[in-house]
Specification:
alpha/beta, about 140 residues, single chain, five-stranded mixed β-sheet, Protein-Tyrosine Phosphatase, Chain A, hydrolase, Protein-tyrosine phosphatase family protein
Length: about 140
């Protein structure tokens, strides 16, 4: 039996394959519902401890991940886990870094790079992916 998010729950993005991933801001209250089974946290410093398995990706606010290869591996792990788990991706505010990561997940799921930011803005948050650098990161994100 797979464990997944409720498709209409706050912050949940449905990728074209049907995978569900929750994006959120850590500065906001935790949404109602079950906890994630795995979380990827995109912060400049180590996140607080959670009661579920996590992975931290060093990613300063308004910038890009400090290790691009680690970022690619972490995002691939999230995409794979989202097939059967409740996975969340979060940064402090839930828009820039989280939106960028979600757009990269959309690329992994088959959305063309040049359409991924629009996909996330339409299906997750209109102001996701905040900076030019973040948009370029998605445009150049490699699935290989």
């Amino acid at each position: 039996m797979s464990v997944s998010w409720e498709p209409t729950a706050a912050g949940v993005l449905r990728l074209p394959s049907g995978r569900l991933v929750r994006g959120r801001g850590l500065l906001r209250p935790v949404p109602d519902g079950p906890p994630p089974t795995f979380g990827l946290y995109l912060l400049g410093q180590e996140p607080p401890a959670m009661s579920w398995p996590t992975r931290w990706l060093r990613w300063p606010d308004f910038w890009l991940p400090t290790d691009r290869e680690d970022a690619r591996a972490a995002l691939r792990e999230v995409w794979e886990r989202a097939d059967s788990e409740r996975v969340e991706v979060a940064c402090a505010g839930g828009r820039g870094r989280t939106g960028t990561a979600l757009a990269c997940l959309a690329v992994l799921d088959g959305v063309p790079n040049q359409e991924a930011v629009g996909y996330v803005r339409k299906h997750y948050a209109p102001r996701a992916v905040e900076t030019l650098w973040q948009r370029r990161f998605v445009a150049r994100f490699s699935t290989g």
